[in-house]
Automatic annotation (TrEMBL):
Organism: Hansschlegelia zhihuaiae
Family under the similarity heading: Belongs to the Orn/Lys/Arg decarboxylase class-II family.
This protein's GO CC annotations: cytoplasm
Protein name, entry field: Ornithine decarboxylase
The organism's place on the tree of life at top rank: Bacteria
Active site per database record: C336 (proton donor)
Length: 410
């Protein structure tokens, strides 16, 4: 990767017409270490959030020694980044051949499930491979209710009474039993964790099974942009949130269990940006060379406030009336369909024009993995950037909700 001090330098040197990702390894190191030092249990990075080899390798170097994996490709990616990291296979519904590969090929001994047929599936393979059940920990995934930006319990999780039965079944067979939940993604509300911990405690008590571990999943909120017109509190500092969750764990009497967490977004969101170019300006509409089918699908849901910064093209003439006042622009993506329009306007300096670049920050989570080849666009160029996004020069814009009598009329 070519290395630049700032994203602005990268844009002006390369003058890219296609999107270019700015990877900030020092930010990734800092965010990984912040979580590792805040959490007293074991940190298993959730590979699905961003499974690029350069990200996984950097995380391994920063001290991440466990990965939450869900597929053979993720087993391989995590193993390639670290020969001796522990792999936790936390997908509750698995193909039989994938379970075989996990146990035999990768030596995985921790798996999640939420149904008795999955216990039977795993047991068949454990017996066939002559593995001692006592060497395998099966985590029962609990259903949870919460207010995450992304709700994930619609799909997975056993109701409490069902979870009790599953734990007892697992224990009878001779497997080690664990409990896990995943409250969603970008969860800013501690109550979601509190409720899940309450359920975990109830299930543990009812089952009478001695638990080998408690895995509290992911969901920890990353810091995104800040809309100055909406003084909603920023996402809590990861250290604060983790401390509060840990004291809840202790309050529920679960603090004696070995703990695992599966953070994704909170570790990788800030380490990556994308430098896009303005291809056309029609009034308050900007047509850019990226969009929801490429790097920006996560933002399309409208639940996060992405920070953005204009990098004006010094080679073009700036209009006499061009001002730096932030005004909202509707952002149209690169593909030929009407879905590819960002759900939130981007607030950018009024003078933005064709040929300028916009650096959209904090897209490290759920962007690269969700790129598609739709319409033949597939951004895949990377540069390394030393300066954190927040420390670059120029006013910080952001993608936020429509103004209601806000700063400027669209
Ligand atoms: C996606 C996922 C994670 C990571 O979630 P973040 O919100 O990115 O922290 C962790 N655990 C499981 C089971 C997941 O599916």
């Amino acid at each position: 990767m070519q290395r630049f001090e700032t994203a602005r330098e990268a844009a002006l040197a390369l003058r890219p017409d296609r999107p270019v990702y700015g990877f900030r390894p020092s930010v990734l190191d800092a965010d990984a270490r912040a979580f590792l030092s805040a959490f007293r249990g074991r940190t298993a990075y959730a590979v699905k959030t961003n499974g690029e080899p350069f990200v996984l390798e950097r995380l391994a170097k920063a001290g991440v020694d466990a990965f939450d994996v869900a597929s053979p490709a993720e087993f391989a990616a995590a193993r390639a980044a670290s020969a001796d990291a522990a792999l936790f296979y936390m997908h509750p519904v698995k193909a039989q051949s994938d379970v075989r590969l996990a146990l035999e090929g990768y030596g995985i001994r921790s798996l999640a499930l939420d149904h008795e047929d999955e216990v039977a599936k795993i047991l068949r393979i454990v017996r066939a491979q002559d593995i001692a059940p006592g060497d395998v920990t099966l985590f029962v995934r609990l259903a949870t209710k919460g207010h995450a930006a992304y709700e994930l319990s619609k799909k997975f999780g056993a109701a409490p009474a069902h979870a009790v039965e599953l734990l007892q079944r697992i224990d009878r067979i001779g497997f080690r039993a664990g409990v896990t939940f995943h409250v969603g993604s970008q969860v800013e509300d501690l109550a979601a964790y509190e409720r899940a911990l309450g359920t975990a405690d109830w299930v543990r008590g009812r089952s009478g099974v001695e638990l080998a571990a408690l895995d509290i999943g992911g969901g920890f909120p990353a810091r995104y942009g800040q809309d100055p017109r909406r003084p909603s509190p920023p996402a809590p500092e990861v250290g604060d949130l983790v401390r509060r969750i840990e004291s809840e764990i202790d309050a529920w009497g679960l603090g004696d269990l070995p703990l695992i967490a599966e953070p994704g977004r909170v570790i990788v969101a800030r380490c990556l940006s994308v430098i896009v170019r303005v291809l056309l300006k029609k009034g308050q509409r900007l047509y850019i060379n990226d969009g929801i089918w490429s790097s920006l699908s996560d933002s399309w849901t409208g639940k996060i406030t992405l920070p953005a910064r204009l990098i004006p093209d010094p080679a073009r003439k700036r209009g006499a009336r061009a001002s730096d006042r932030l005004t909202p622009f509707r952002v149209m993506g690169a593909t030929c369909d009407s879905v590819d329009i960002l759900s939130r306007p981007f607030w950018l300096p009024e003078g933005v024009d064709v040929g300028d670049w916009i650096e959209i920050g904090h897209i490290g989570a759920y962007s690269l993995a969700l790129r598609t080849r739709f319409n033949g666009f597939y951004p895949d160029e990377f540069v390394e950037v030393a300066t954190p996004f927040e420390a670059e020069e120029g006013a910080e814009g952001f993608a936020s909700l429509e103004p209601r009598g806000g700063v400027a009329a669209g």
